[in-house]
Amino acid sequence: MNITLVLAGAGIAAAGGLAALVVADRPRWASRLGGCSAAIGCGMALIPVIGVLAGDRITSFSMPWPVPFGSFTIGLDTLSAFFLLPILLLCGLAAVYGTEYLQTYAGRKPLGPAWFMFGLLVGSMVLLVIARNAVLFLVAWEVMSLSSFFLVTFEHERAEVRRAGWTYLVATHLGTSCLLAAFVLLSTGSESMHFAALAGADRAATVRDGAVFILVLIGFGTKAGFMPFHVWLPEAHPAAPSHVSAIMSGVMIKTGLYGLLRVLTFLGPPPAWWGCVLIGIGLVSGILGVLFALAQTDLKRVLAYSSVENVGIIAMALGIGLLGVSLGSTPMAVLGFGGGLLHVLNHACFKGLLFLGAGAVAHGTGTRNVELLGGLLKRMPWSGWTFLVGSVAICGLPPLNGFVSELLVYLGALQGARSIDPAYVLLPVGVLAGLALIGGLALACFTRAFGIAFLGESRSESAAHAHECGWRMRAPMLILAACCVALSLLAPMVFGVLTPAIARVSGLPEPQVRAAMTGPQSWLFTVAISSLVLLALATGLVMLGRRLLSKRPVTTTVTWGCGYARPTARMQYTASSFAQPLTACFRLFLGTRESLSPPDGYFPASASLATRTEDVCRERLYSPVFRGLAWLLAKLRWLQHGRVQIYVLYIAFTLLALLIWKLG
Amino acid sequence: MPIAGWCQPVLGLLAAPLLLGIINRVKALFAGRQGPPLIQPYRDLYKLLGKGATYSKTTTLVFRLAPAAGLACVVLALTLLPLGASRAVLAFPGDLVLLIYLLGLVRFLTVIGALDTGSSFEGMGASREVQFSALAEPVLLLVMAGLARQGDSLSLSGIYPAVTAATWMEAGPALALIAAALLVVLLAENSRIPVDDPNTHLELTMIHEVMVLDYSGPDLAAILYGASLKLWVFGSLLVGVCVPVRTGWAIVDVPAFLAGMLVVAVLVGVVESIMARLRLLRVPQLLIGAGAMAMLALVLVVR
What is the percent of chain B with per-residue pLDDT over 90, rounded to a whole number? Predict the structure, then answer.
């Protein structure tokens, strides 16, 4: 029964999109139909998902399907349900947000197609997570990629958006081709593409398992945004409308992680090198992701790169988990997988929140360039304070949810550093140092994003006349901010719910996992208590300060400028200058280019400084490869010259060759 | 929960400003001056608590909330620290991460408070603060990883009681390296020379002091008191390694610990008197050097 409700929810979301397409010439109705049905569908599907997480019976449903190797088999287990939770939550809220956000475009663009694609995206993500047949899975995967491509190119009249969409389309299909190969390899020896059949295949095939692991790492890693397969992400996520960016960064990239975890359940016991590879990828993605985020001035690009960072943290966590399994350390496995899965949910909350906040800024000021913002907290208090909550959470600071999942990853790594074989000890130590560095850099990145955009004085006219968004945009942000607090306080419970999923992914027996989880659960409980104590203490001290000042003179004046009488908003520290010491420190990895024309002579007329940080992977890795490919293919151009007679000759020759081959 | 665990936070809350008094006195002695009385920091705090406040027109509620919230974080951090052989008030595996991240939250609040004024001075200080702390944090984690492996525990209250005189005999070089790395982190995180100079408020080279330029009255008191508590936190992390007195009797352990804190304060004062501040570009190198020491210590412990 419960699986039907999930399917029905996905169906309602998709059908609402279709309805929006029908009334495309009336944008207000298209928004209402598309948005409401997506929100209702997500809300409906959430009921059984929460039920399964709370311990309801796990169900599945199967139906024949006239596609070769295909069958319409779906199922809802704890792993699926845990990924569905953020997907449904964020998609529902983003739909409500979108109804107001897209109104700005109402006169200029047809909204029907956008809502149609939105419904398809939601429906396909849900189907993807519950699919239990490889063909069905890949179909859902492709629908998800294509619908998000059309949403990315929503503003296709802008050249950079078209370029972003193109990059995304190429990247996602290169990834999918790896997945096709991986599933074909997996299904050798079994007649069906059923997940159950794939899981039951030959266990001795270690070489095949290794090849499959590499293929899915590339295939799913492209979607998840692992470095160096991330190049599409910082292009495509900012280009999409903000509520779609929130979905793409918050949950769509997690479908890649879901796929990776699902395939791990098909494979035999993991060798140690799988964990090492994942930890390596995680470290590179995490550190470089946050460094690039620090160098951006487009608010949404900052957030997109920070998604690469967070996916890196999750990859490190999963790597710790895999290493724990292969080295026989149950606590490491439980802490690694548990921390990684919890971070999936937490990241969906705060990244969704931050993207919606960035959307509100773009909506209220008309720009996403941090250097043109400033002082927005006064004019946009709702967006500002929720953005602050998201910033604290994404830095992994207590008392919010980001801290809880990072704590588990730290504990997994510390457990490794404390106890495992000295030959592998450098890996968990690398994770510890890496996570600490990422934490410090993320703090720099998000104090910069929040501080420069929302605090100080406005740096431009558009920021000075910013307006706050309406309640349909505010409410989703408030709910997500509340989730950031709630998930921190409820962390012991949420972590406990994960037991079957961790047992499934790690291949360890469930009682053993349950036993290893009681310790961390009680630690998380202590953390929740100390979070409450912290909040109470802070409130008490603030009240005390208020009390002290209540009967004393409190005056207001200008910011002290060391005696300078005519300060202007342009004299404030900018986002670029704030990040400069760190970007200079790490210029080896960033490759920031500067073009400086310094003031010259006694009466300098003009001077300028421009810095640009392009993606290293795109500039140094993909551009040369694709240029080489284009050059190579251009060599074949002489085959194509448009003379029909010659083409007929080609056909004749081909037929002749085939004939000779067949006869010979 | 043992009563002994409360010694640490109570002592910290009472005696932390005294550390600043001692440091200033040592600096005065080196300079051939008499120096302010040891209890001068307390007098300053009392004076500030009795004053009104002045706020900038540019600032928002963020600026007014940050000092008190930051103080709350440091106070909570105090309850995570063990003293001698006794457990801390709040002790659980992973409390060392909570400690480091609580100090991170203090930094977050100070930095956004500074950016809230819109002053370019404070932006500059904030920018430097986040840079140096981002580099100091991995060092601290590596130090903790080494100690965790040495003490075979994931909790500060398990790690520190395990550092005894016998451990020093056994793994002396590793502990010495750890102590050296901790000292560098202490100087960097508490804005002391050679990273930052707490005396000159108004130079372009300042970090912490310049971030709090616009605070006044009780807010400034909260910031100064919080800074002294932070010095106490780092001091006790260092003393815990260097003074391995773990008898379990408070009457021996507490005086030994306090003597250790006195030595740390004097040491900071001496460093501040005989060294010049490093150029800002050199600071990352100092911190990376500390990281290398911590890494080497870890290798020695693992071996």
Answer: 65
What is the dihedral sign for C-alpha A242, A176, A289, A213?
Answer: positive
Side-chain half-sphere exposure of A249, counting CA atoms within 13 A: 35
Strand extents, DSSP E, chain B: 53-56
Q: CB A16: neighbour CB atoms within 10 A? A: 28
Q: What global pTM score does this model have?
A: 0.94
User: Contact, A498 vs A341, CB < 8 A?
Assistant: yes
Are A410 and B65 an interchain contact pair (Cβ–Cβ within 8 Å)?
no
> Is A549's CB within 8 Å of B218's CB?
yes
Q: Which residues pair with A194 in a beta bridge?
A: A133
Strand, helix or coil for residue A554: strand
Q: From CA A413, how far away is CA A283, in angstroms rounded?
A: 13
Of B118, B138, B149, the CB nearest to A559: B118
Residue written as token pair 């981002």: B134
Amino acid at A514: R
Whether the Cβ atoms of residue A365 and residue A462 lie closer than 8 Å to each other: yes
Residues of B numbered 268-297 whose beta carbons fall under 8 angstroms of chain A's beta carbons: which are they? Answer: 280, 284, 291, 295
Nearest to B184 by CA among B300, B299, B291: B291
In the block, tokens 């304060």 appear at: B265
Taking CA–CA distances from A520, the nearest residue in chain B reads B93
Q: What pLDDT, on a 0 to 100 scale, did the predictor assign at position B248?
A: 80
Length of chain A in terms of residues written: 664
CA of B215 to nearest chain A CA: how many angstroms apart? 10
- Taken in order B1, B3, B5, B8, is the CA torsion positive or negative? positive
Cβ pairs bridging A and B (under 8 Å):
243
**Min Cα–Cα distance to chain B from A378, Å:** 7
- Which one-letter amino acid corresponds to residue A57? R
As a whole number, mean pLDDT of residues A378-393 equals 95
- The per-residue pLDDT for range B47-58, each reduced to its tens digit, is 999 999 999 988
Q: What is the dihedral of CA B78, B82, B87, B90, to 10 degrees?
A: 20
